[in-house]
Amino acid sequence: MTPFSRRAFATAAVASLLAGCGGHQARQTTAARPSGRRPPPTPVKPARPLGRSVPVGLRIPAIGVDTPVIRLGLAPDGSVAVPPVTAHDRAGWYRHSPTPGQLGPSVILGHVTVGGYGDGVFRHLARLRRGDRVEARLENGTAARFDISAVRTVAKADFPADRVYGNVNRPELRLITCGGPRSGDGYLDNVIVFAALTSAAP
After folding, report:
1. Domain boundaries in the chain?
2. Which of 33, 60, 144, 168 could potentially form a cystine with 101 if both were Cys, beta carbons 3.0 to 4.6 Å apart?
3. Are 159 and 151 in contact (CB under 8 A)?
């Protein structure tokens, strides 16, 4: 993305996350920390970038996520669209970001709650830790595997747009949802997962 389009994307994405976390009937879900210690992550050499292929599924074994991925564009007000609030919640890839495995930050959004339906697909995103694995299933049959490097919970007012959407010199992944305490119809924070491509396989 050019610097101009990246800034526009960041502004739109932040606007969508301020409003798109599941609706006024959503209930707070508290993500408890796992009781046991996880082994320290083993350093892995980053993988070479992949060609463009749209994501169709996402697996995060550490929190039991195995979800289809839909494509998201822009809402009528210019913000990034979020997945629809339905009983069968799904994650959504923002189609103007790189596809998972391409050079740059690929962005996937998901709800923490989905109105009267209860928990969203990213309800336990804050439980993830460095070294956990994320796998994006691509349209061409490839499984792009990412290792998490950081998980951050940040106030929406302080959303780190440059760090989330800025240029990077390797294939990376961003998973984003809402979190923190409730305020009126929404949440005060965002949970952001940062991950880097480590391997790819058929």
Report:
1. 3-27+47-201
2. 144
3. no
